[in-house]
Amino acid sequence: LGELPAAVAHGQRAVALLEVLTREEPDAATHRVNLLSATNALRYALVDAGRSAEALEASRRGATLLEAMVADDPRNAFLRRSLAVTLNALARDRIAAGDAAAARISADRSLALSAQLLAAEPGNLEHRRDVAFAVRVLAEAHAAAGERAASLTAWRDAVARHEALLAAGAGDRARDDLA
Fold first, then answer.
1. Residue 73 scores a pLDDT above 90
2. pLDDT, tens digit, 9 for 90 and up, residues 138-147
């Protein structure tokens, strides 16, 4: 808490160690999951430390890891949801880096994955929240690209989805997302 340089350093060491373990035992799913977790934690520490270029690289690495994991187990809803969430983070990091076009691609992919998961489980509030959040990130990407009309349309859609989540009793997370 508050020790960002130490958090980044520890995160970098964890990622480096887990990369070695993953190379030595490429079939060990536990190493890949731990590497993904460490990469995501490092990304958050880098964002908090204001090191956006490195955070973008960690987001790319996380997405690449998850894409490989989903390719190995395409029916795994948890991995597909994790990829969608990671693609949202990647989109936001790309916006911060000034690459609105790449951000839209990541946001579109996240929205497509989230929508697929929601179609399979229409009553799942987490999937509904994921779609709403992906639409919000897409709105941010359109805004970053100067696409005012598309951004406004997406923002309206995102707000309506978040309001529907509140009405469905999604609780504090939906309220926080709407704020």
1. yes
2. 999 999 999 9
Hey, what amino acid is at 106? Answer: S
Provide the 8-state DSSP code for 73: -
Please tell me the distance from the alpha carbon of residue 161 to that of residue 103, in angstroms, as a whole number.
21
Q: Give the C-alpha distances (Å, rounded to integers) separating 97 from 39, 48, 87.
A: 19, 15, 15
CA distances 120 to 74, 114, 142, 169, Å, are 14, 10, 28, 21
Cα-Cα-Cα-Cα torsion 161, 162, 164, 167, nearest 10 degrees, comes to 180
Q: How many CB atoms lie within 10 A of CB 7?
A: 18
| pLDDT number for residue 179 | 63
